[in-house]
Amino acid sequence: MTTGPTGALLVVGDVVTDIVARHRGPLAPGTDTAAVIRTVPGGAGANVACWAAHWGCADVRLLGRVGADAAAWHERELVASGVQPRLVVDPEAATGTVICLVDTGASAERTFLTDSGAALRLGPEDWSDSLLDGVVRLHLSGYLLFSGPSRAFVAAAVESARARGVPVSLDPASAGFLVELGVDRFLTLVEGVDMLLPSRDEACLLTGLPDPADAAAKLSRHVPLVVTKQGAEGALLAHSGTVHAHVPAEPATPRDTTGAGDAFTGAFLATLLTGADPEKAAREGCRAGARAVERVGGRPPGRG
């Protein structure tokens, strides 16, 4: 674990309800497939914030948009994880919901059915420069780039952060959504971001290169620091067009890989805010990722 930083981490992103169905082997079309089903709090942005707090960041704040249906529950869960929620309650849309189908057999496949609901209705009217008071890093979930209102929100937040000298990191979030958005559009939208934390698939998609090291190197010509998360193969760190470090993964026995990348990001940011260098932060990220895959759901264990 790390010691707390001298300033706050502000995470902006999705807060959703995860319905996790763990089944073994292929789904049986037209009939029943036995599964273990749990409802847990999730969302990439919320998960990152919770893991950052779990990893020792003393002041983690989360801005997200939820529906009135589940706002109180999500707020309680975030507070219990050591996060200060700044939740905007949407007057019309319900809280986003994701059904996570997790194959517990040899394939360990994950499939997501996503209803973003209120999560992607965060707009520029939800941003205020005062949200950066006391903040030393702003982290954005890439899901915010996948709707018009939240893209406008990102532009306002990044402009405000740059004016204050607050560094901004972003996780691309979803290879599937990136295909719809378009690579060129994504790279334009992330101008002003100082750190990108893609998965291996996202890095390759964003560059058109099959090798993740080549992809990380190319991306680091667009964004100053690129940290590519590779699951069981650890992480790559690149800047100025060159890969400078390959951090190995921690051994783990996976039960559910949902949220492993969020765990990496949260621990990475928490460690970085202590003044550690990115390579040490990536080692902590790999430790957190290993812990995450041994749990069901995307959040760290509760406190106490």
UniProtKB/TrEMBL annotation:
Keywords: Kinase, Transferase. It comes from Streptomyces hokutonensis. Residues 9-299 form the Carbohydrate kinase PfkB domain. The keyword Coiled coil does not apply. InterPro entries: Carboh/pur_kinase_PfkB_CS, PfkB_dom, Ribokinase-like. This is Carbohydrate kinase family protein. The lineage of its organism: Bacteria, Bacillati, Actinomycetota, Actinomycetes, Kitasatosporales. The keyword Nucleus does not apply. Its EC number is 2.7.1.-. Signal peptide: none annotated. One of its GO terms (molecular function) is kinase activity.
